[in-house]
Amino acid sequence: xxxxxxxxxxxxxxxxxxxxxxxxxxxxxxxxxxxxxxxxxxxxxxxxxxxxxxxxxxxxxxxxxxxxxxxxxxxxxxxxxxxxxxxxxxxxxxxxxxxxxxxxxxxxxxxxxxxxxxxxxxxxxxxxxxxxxxxxxxxxxxxxxxxxxxxxxxxxxxxxxxxxxxxxxxxxxxxxxxxxxxxxxxxxxxxxxxxxxxxxxxxxxxxxxxxxxxxxxxxxxxxxxxxxxxxxxxxxxxxxxxxxxxxxxxxxxxxxxxxxxxxxxxxxxxxxxxxxxxxxxxxxxxxxxxxxxxxxxxxxxxxxxxxxxxxxxxxxxxxxxxxxxxxxxxxxxxxxxxxxxxxxxxxxxxxxxxxxxxx
Length: 359
Ligand SMILES: [Fe+2]
Hints:
CATH class of the largest domain: Alpha Beta
Strand content: 5-15%
Number of strands: 6
Radius of gyration: 22 Å
Number of domains: 3
CATH architecture of the largest domain: 2-Layer Sandwich
Bound molecules: fe (ii) ion
Largest sheet: 6 strands, antiparallel
CATH superfamily of the largest domain: GAF domain
């Protein structure tokens, strides 16, 4: 099982494990146990942000430091700089606070709740270089699950009735797309004072309008939300309007900025800009909609689309500055500027997609 698959399973368990009525400490305790025993780390636990220092919270593993000052060590740095900190070798981290001599590498992820950092998740490993961006991404998702605690009835309705609709859409907008947008929206929304249930619903429904056509799907998604009476079990009419507007505003090609923070969160989460994925989705769309084109035709179409949208003067706008997309967009632009790199990536993806079609 790959690390990503393992984290995906942990996420599913975490979502069903979190009890909104039990409070943060109870949920952190189970979350620490889940991660710790899932991976067999040296130490896994939370430090709670209180005043000028971090205080030891629920954990698994050997005895630990009880208090860490703001800005000190890896935990204090993650809190101060409001970001995930990955340390491949603790001996090389200036000012490292050693609670256990056995720790060789470490990752610390801030736990956001309604726009504030309330804790940090700290994990120590017995080996160097244990943690990378994959751990960072999934641990941020797990910390968001901790703060979001989505209503279980809403979660069940969306899992049973809404997500399966994505099975009817094209490859780029299947179930995994919906699930990724939900996860990303959850991870971003905890940085703002918003209602996580509303973000969850908007993310889940945002592409359901693809049952009509691609061109107007965002408008149809909004109509689907407004006419879904079941949503009234959890939301007021006003809230449903905000959710519908957010789904409608998710399209980057829209002339105007999303009207609310909810719309900005969905628009940003929909654009998981991974250079290779962007190229692959463009190729997939081309193969599905322009079967008459040859490889050169598909290449020309891919370049034109990617340039128009993601190039230096592309129409894509980022709505949430904290999103990981800013860095990834720059990576993609480097590929776009270097046509030989772009061609190389296209050829590989095209061959893979063609092979799968002929399979
Ligand atoms: Fe869409």
